[in-house]
Structures are given as C-alpha cells and as structure tokens.
Amino acid sequence: MFGIHDQFRRAQLAIAALFCFLGFQYATWASRLPAIKARLDLTEAELGLLLMACGAGAAASFPLVAMLMKRLGSRRLAFVSAICLSVLLLALAVAPNYPVALLIICCDGVAVGSLNVAMNAQGAALEVKYQRTAMAKLHATFSAGSLFAALLASGMNALTPAVSAHFGVATVILLLLVGLTQSGLLTEDQQAPKKSRRKLTRPSRVTIWMGCAMVFGTVTEGAMNDWSALYMKDVVNATAELAPMGIAVVSVMMVLARIFADGWRSRWGDGRIVRVGSAVAGAGLALALLAGGVVPTLIGFACVGLGVAAVTPCIYVAAAGQGTDALALVAAMGTTGLLAGPAVIGFIASASSLVWGMGAVAASAVLVSLCATQIRWPRLAES
Predict the structure, then answer these.
(1) Is residue 135 within 8 Å of residue 316, measured between CB atoms?
(2) Taking Cα atoms as reference points, which of 174, 125, 36 lies closest to residue 323?
C-alpha cells in the first residue's frame, strides 16, 4: 500500500513523463528540419509555412480540446494525443510530398494542443489533490526532453542521414514514455468553481486576463528563442562562437529556475512570483539594451530566463482552477503568442531596428506583470 508521499511521487513521475514526451517529440522533428527540407525540396517560404502549420493547428484546436477534455478527461486525452503524436512522427519521416507533410504537421499541432492542455490539467490536479507545488518542475522536464531530443538527433545524424531511422528510434522512446504514464496518471481532473456545461461558455474577465498574461509571456519566451542569437551577432557584434550563448543563457536559467521555482511559489505565492519575475525580465532586458555590449546583454538575457521561467506554469495552474474551457482557451492563446510573437518582433525590427524589436520583448514581459495583478492566484505547499 502506497503512502500519501509515495502516491504523490508516483503521479508526479507519470505526469513528468508527459511533459518530457512533448518536449522530446517536438524537438525531434524540429531538429531534422534541414533534412526534411532537402528531402522534399522545399523553399524557405514553404518551410516557413510548414512551421506555421504546426502552430496554427495547435492554436485552432481550442474548441475540439475543450470538448474532448469534458468527454474523455485529461488522462484518456493525454494517452490518445501521445499515441497520435508517435504515429505522426513516423508519418512525417515517410511523407511522400509537401502537401502530405503539411497535413501531417497541421495534425501534429492539433495533437500538441490536446496533450498540452491534458498534461497541464494533470499537473494542476496533482497540486490540488496533494496540496503541493509541482508545476514548475514538470515544465523543467519539458526542457529536459527537448535537450535529450537534440542530443539524440546529433548522435543519429552522425550514424546515418536517414530521417526514418532517427524517427523510428525516437518513436520507440516516445512509446516507452507513454508506458511510464499509465500507472500513475490521475483519474480525476480539477473542477471549475461553477458547474460545467457541455457547451462552451463565454470566458470570464479573469480568464481573459490569464490569456493575455499567457500571450505576453509566450511572446517573450518565443522571441528570445528566435532573436537572441541574431541580436548578439548583429547588434552587440559578438563573435560567431559567442552569438549562440544568448539562447544558451536563457535556456539554462529557465531550467534552473524551474527546478527551484516550486519552492519560491510556496514561500511567496504564484502571484508575486509572476509579477516580480516578469518585471525583472522586462527591466533586466531593457537595461541591457540601453547599456549595449556582450556582457550586459548576456546578463539581461539571464534576467529574462530567470524571470519568465515560472510564468507559464503558474498561469496554467490558475487557468485549470477555472475549468477545462478556461484552460483550453489560455493554452490556445499561449500557442498563438508563441507562434505570432517572433514574427511581430521581426516586423518591428524591419520597420526600425532589432533594438526596438527587443525593446518590444521587454515591454511584453512588463505587460505580463500588469496582467498578473488582475488574476486570482492559488497558494500551495512545496512538493
């Protein structure tokens, strides 16, 4: 018979496997985009549309995911989504032409949107059931899955250029992760404060604020991933060896912060963590833009990684407390921010300069802090 602590750890491991699964699956096919581009003989525009299709599928999945969450629950939806993502990875490896690849990636986006909502619903339910914080560590395992996928891609690419061999090995790993989830996932979801209806309801004011905070948070996160290296190279004149250090600093700080963030959440509360963290991210980046130079820029980027690390985990927990419709909507808005944010920054940079584009990223982080003042935040003990 498992004790309460053992039950919590068992469920936490199973849910962490879902987060690791999603990070690993996405990074696996993204890491082989050059090979996919060459095999299908794609132009840059066609490759860009392929990437947009995944984000568009995830963003458009909101009504379907909300309905499936009510009918299947997060446990069954997570399992179905994970199996679909495993099959779609294999299908992408053998896609005969561009239209088929486009359809596969669009379906992949829908499955990603479904698993994203289901796994975050599981994480939120875990916190409520055991009254312990855990979501930030779960999001850290997503990053760990992405890192593992990158290492596997490097190793497989050294052994064979065949994408099908790489994706075949990756699919076996994905199925093993699915197996890890089966004995520990929670059977019950966190319920909304009011009785849920089968049809979609108008989102509340608090849900809209959560969605806005998620959009600005994912804009900040996505733009740093896409633009930091170019800023290092073109604006602060970093060497080719130092330019990738921008995203490396952001990523490392985010993983480290997520490992410790659950303790911070227990001590200071989700609301304060989001408000202060996003303000630190915005102020740190703004000061770095004003100061210029490689070292101040890297310090500013570190502030962004540290400050935004706990933003999305905290918002997912708060959204889950409003019910499955709210969680699905907030997740879709977050995907939209992640998809559209880097493009918006690019438009700003084209119209003025990349300094102003990165300034918009700093402003976006500050807007997260302002939105956070309008949200009711839960408070739990540390895991």
Answers:
(1) yes
(2) 125
| Cα torsion 111, 117, 118, 119: sign | positive
Q: Taking a C-beta distance cutoff of 8 angstroms, is the pair 141, 90 a contact?
A: no
Q: What are the b/e assignments for 285-296, b being 16+ CB within 10 Å?
A: bbebbeeeebeb
Residue 110: both structure tokens together? 């829908």
- Per the prediction, the chain carries an average pLDDT of 88
The 8-class DSSP code of residue 201 comes to -
Handedness of CA 56, 229, 115, 92 (dihedral sign): positive
The per-residue pLDDT for range 290-302, each reduced to its tens digit, is: 998 999 999 999 9
The residue-averaged pLDDT of 198-204 equals 68
Apex 59 CA angle, 56 and 64, nearest 5: 115
In this structure, what are the phi and psi dihedrals at residue 352, rounded to the nearest 5 degrees? -135, -85
| pLDDT (tens digit per residue) in 29-61 | 888 888 888 899 988 778 878 877 887 888 888
